[in-house]
Each structure stands twice: as C-alpha cells, then as structure tokens.
Amino acid sequence: MKLKHTLMIAALTITKFRRINILFAFIGMAILRIPLWFNKDCKFWKLMGSGKDGQVDLAPDFKHWAIITTWDNKAHCDEFYVNSFPMKWFRFFGFEAFTVLLKPLSTHGLWSGKEPFKIDSNYQPATEKIAVITRARIKSNKLKEFRSNIKRAADQMKKSEGFVLSAGVGENPFLDQATFSIWENAETMKNYAYKSFDHADIIKLTRERKWYSEDLFARFEILELTGVFNGRPVAEYQPYRKSNHK
User: Fold this and answer.
1) What is the average pLDDT across 228-244?
2) In angstroms, rounded to a whole number, what is the distance separating the alpha carbons of residues 107 and 123?
3) Of 58, 64, 221, 245, which cross-links 50 as Cys (Cβ 3.0–4.6 Å)?
4) Which CATH number fits domain 9-227: 3.90.1150.10, 3.30.70.100, 3.40.50.1000, 1.10.3720.10?
C-alpha cells in the first residue's frame, strides 16, 4: 500500500529479546526515554513490557517488549524507524519483531491524561480488517478482582470468529494493561465485545465495580503489518473461523 506522507500514523512494535539480552531490554526501558523526550516529531510514545509470550496474560514476560508512537505524517515515522537510537537498540538486542502501522478511525478515553490518537473524520478506510487497542489503569484496590476475571475474556477472544492476532502490553505488569488485537472486520470485533458472554460480563462488571481510574478504546485501519510474532511471520496469521475449528 502506498501511503500518503501527510497521513497521521500510529506505530506499534513488539520485539522479542533472547534470554541473554534481557538485561539490555530493562536498560533500554530507562535510557530510551531520553531520545523520545527530545524527539519533537513524536507526538505520543510509550515504552512497555508484555504479558507471557507477548499475549494478554497477567504474568510478565521479560523477553517481549514494546514501543508505541504517534506521528503527524509517515515521513517522520519512517525516519524514526530507520535512524533513531531507540529502534536501533531494539534491532541490535532483539532477534524477532513485528511492526504495525495504524490509521486511527475512532477513539474515546485517555492514556496518561492525553488523547494520543488524532482522528480525521473525512478519512475512508480502504480495508475491512481492523485493529483495536484497549488500555486501562486499574485501581490498586480493585486489582485482585480484576485479575480474577480478565483471563476468561482473553481466552474467549482467541476462540472468537474473525479473530486474527492479539498481544498484551503495558507500562507496568499490574496496574496499566493494554491489549492490541486484529480482527477480520468491525462486525466480528463487536460480536466478541458485546455478544460473547465472558467479555460482555467483564464490561458489565467494569462499570458496576469501577475497576479503572482511566481507560481508552481505539479502533484503527491497518496500513502495514510486517515481521514475526511468536515465531510466525505475520502473513501466516489468518482469521479464526468457527467452521475450521470443530
């Protein structure tokens, strides 16, 4: 796909480090903040850890680490990915990574008090396949209750029709949780979110018990998807269809 250089871009990369390089992953989470702070073209960024095997899992995985950034145009995004110190660090110490470039289609909520994704109301997506980012800051006094319920929603997602891929990331493994997922289309995503029992029940409990102090939901068009995730090239990931999983 040939992208307009004026297109607002969100980029997510999840990198896997070999066990011998995990120390450098931790060091990177500290020192890579400095060039990101000083990058005036980057409008929003987060350095994040991941759940077990890069998945939506409460157990942290010290081999998988992630970075999300937003840009006012693709030229700035390309420059960052080719020449920036943070991405060179990830490439040098990591051995497997996948990157997705995203165009925000809708969003509500905040991430660290900010609205990170800029929406163009006149933009028309070129494909039905969508990506979703959900992010929440869990109240410390609600953490135990949240942890006892969230796994069933993650398990249900992987079995839902139209599901393609998911990853769990966050600024810390306990109170800040984010889920990235790809779906065949918006309808299958909504069926999971609002019609599957486990996830619909989680939404109800979230509202009733007030688990979150801050949350965000954003939907995106997928502009580019490249690399390897958990040992598989992303081109091999296909939508889950119930007829193929009897």
Assistant:
1) 76
2) 14
3) 64
4) 3.30.70.100
